[in-house]
Amino acid sequence: MRTLLALAALLPAFSAASSPPADSLSGLFAGTCMKYFYSQDGLREAMRNLGSSEVPSEKAEFFLGNKPGKAWFVITPSTAYVVALRDDTVCAVFAQRADAAQVRTGFVSLVGTAPQPMVATVEDPKLLGPNDNAHIQTVAYSWSRPKDKDELLFVLTTSDSSEVTAQAMASMSLVSKAEGPR
């Protein structure tokens, strides 16, 4: 809960404008993090080509988890987003406003089935994000082949509270299967 509530201090960060590539969290996540995960220079170039404003470094720290990287604003008719790409390849999309149930449905539809030969696995959300009240929920899936040492991890945290600045955050990262609980 602290993660989403901490975004309240960043409300001014969401007021910068840029052109939207999509008007849904799942669409933007698919068109940025998923599309460019293995070509992250392509994501940086795509954000430049869209004219997306870079988030100032003092505000980007939050979206990057205090790790090195870049973050960009994406403004759509319905809400504002931040696309964050850390130098360690973790990619995330934050939505200022989102219908939590609709976003969860879209996210599960997007990552609930992996392209073959990979297999999608439901992960324990208690190990990956907040689930501490009725307003905040985390869902997670991983994609890998049975003999792979690494897996792609997809995590979505949503809040239906109108008091938070960001109501949804989807992330993607490459993690070791041997890491144990995340």
Any overview of this molecule?
The protein is α+β, with helices and mostly antiparallel strands. It has one domain (2-174). Helix content is 25%, strand content 28%. The protein is built from five helices and seven strands. The protein has helices spanning 2-6, 25-34, 40-50, 57-63, 100-111, and strands at 69-75, 80-86, 91-95, 119-122, 136-144, 150-159, 168-176. The chain has a seven-stranded antiparallel sheet, with helices on both faces. Strand 5 and strand 6 form a beta hairpin. The longest helix has 12 residues, at 100-111. The protein is globular. Mean pLDDT is 83; it is low at 1-23.
List key phrases describing it:
182 residues, alpha+beta, globular
Category by helix and strand content = alpha+beta
- Tally of discrete structural domains: 1
Query: Can you tell me the residue ranges where pLDDT is under 50 for at least 5 consecutive residues?
Result: 1-23
Rg result = 15 Å
- Major sheet size, sense and barrel closure: 7 strands, antiparallel
Distance between the termini: 18 Å
Compute the number of helices.
Answer: 5
Strand order of the largest sheet: 1-2-3-7-6-5-4
Give me the count of strands.
7
Order of helices and strands: HHHHEEEHEEEE
Indicate the proportion of strand residues.
Answer: 25-35%
The helix content is 10-25%
Arithmetic mean pLDDT: 83
C-alpha geometry:
globular
